[in-house]
Amino acid sequence: MFNVNRRVLGGMMVGASMPGFASAVVAAERYADQKVVYHVNDLPGEDGKHHRAALNNVQNHIDAVGKGRIEVKVVLHGDGVEMLRQAMSNDKLQSAITSLKTQNVQFLVCNNTLTGRNINADADLFEVFEEDIVPSGVAELSNLQQKGFTYVKP
What domains does the chain contain, in order, with CATH numbers? Predict the structure, then answer.
């Protein structure tokens, strides 16, 4: 039979009884600091369902690694720009985007898409500023990967 150290077992039980505590400790030990770029270029789905799922992936990633230990950028081009267009009138998308921005997530928008689709960032998109617009979404993805960002396609 196994010889169990009661102090260790007791500590494990206390940690297990505190929601989130054990998972936060495990994440802190498991994950190094991270830089990640999320690539969104798909249609939003009904009521923004697909885009909300992508934003949920970003939040889960931040929660797993830790707010102060992760740098996240979301690159939107093509149909992905619809996330910010729908957010103008979709409270769920607005809330998710705003929450992520307060955690220093940067949303980068492709100027080629804006030009090609005749989209006015100021009038048509939720909280997009000049510094959020990049010349090319796909070129930005490559640029960020060259700078050490891990690519994620939700």
Answer: 1-30 (no CATH), 33-152 (3.40.1260.10)
